[in-house]
Write a structure and sequence with these properties.
There is one protein chain. The protein is mainly alpha-helical. It has a domain of 82 residues. The chain is built from four helices and two strands; from the N terminus they run ααββαα. Strands 1-2 form a two-stranded antiparallel sheet. A hairpin with a 4-residue loop joins strand 1 and strand 2. Helix 1 packs antiparallel against helix 2. The protein is flat.
């Protein structure tokens, strides 16, 4: 069985990375070149251009991230479907299988426990802790958790100008 050398794999991955980076750079350049401004000062135009480029970059990378996240999830399923025991072992790294090129190892973090506040209150009530004490403790323990922030960049289309 032929064993592939590490540098052969690194060379293939580096070439792939170069090609992807080149395509992304080209796309960013094309989107940057679409910028047009009617700002009155150079400073305002530069600010608008930087904002435009930020939106262009975001549009490119989020599209790529979404696509490749799907590829990663699919690859993980494929790895798990071909493993004898796809679950792994808590806190250990296990070699699932290998070929002459790759070794597939899976590491599962150590299992942890959680306690839901509602379940804790129920159990403390069963043990005889007064409801007023529990309510007071819950009010004191509450912390504000900032909501998630979502970014959205969309292309603006001028329907009258789209005759292509």
């Amino acid at each position: 069985m032929k064993v592939v050398k590490r540098h052969e794999i690194a060379k293939i991955i580096a070439a792939l990375d170069y090609e992807i980076t080149s395509v992304i750079s080209h796309a960013h350049t094309e989107l940057s070149n679409l910028f047009d401004s009617n700002e009155e000062s150079n400073e305002a135009t530069v600010t608008s251009y930087e904002r435009h480029n930020g939106m262009a970059w975001y549009k490119i990378v989020t599209g790529i991230a979404t696509k490749y996240k799907g590829y990663v999830d699919s690859a993980k399923k494929q790895l798990d479907n071909s493993a004898l025991n796809p679950d792994g072992i808590s806190g250990e790294e296990v070699t699932m299988y290998s070929s002459n090129v790759f070794t597939y190892k899976k590491k599962q973090n150590v299992d942890t426990t959680t306690v839901a506040a509602k379940d804790l209150v129920t159990e403390l009530s069963r043990l005889g802790v007064e409801k007023s004490l529990l309510d007071s403790a819950l009010v004191s323990a509450k912390k504000i958790r900032k909501g998630n922030t979502y970014y959205k960049v969309e292309a603006k289309y001028d329907d009258d100008a789209c005759s292509d």
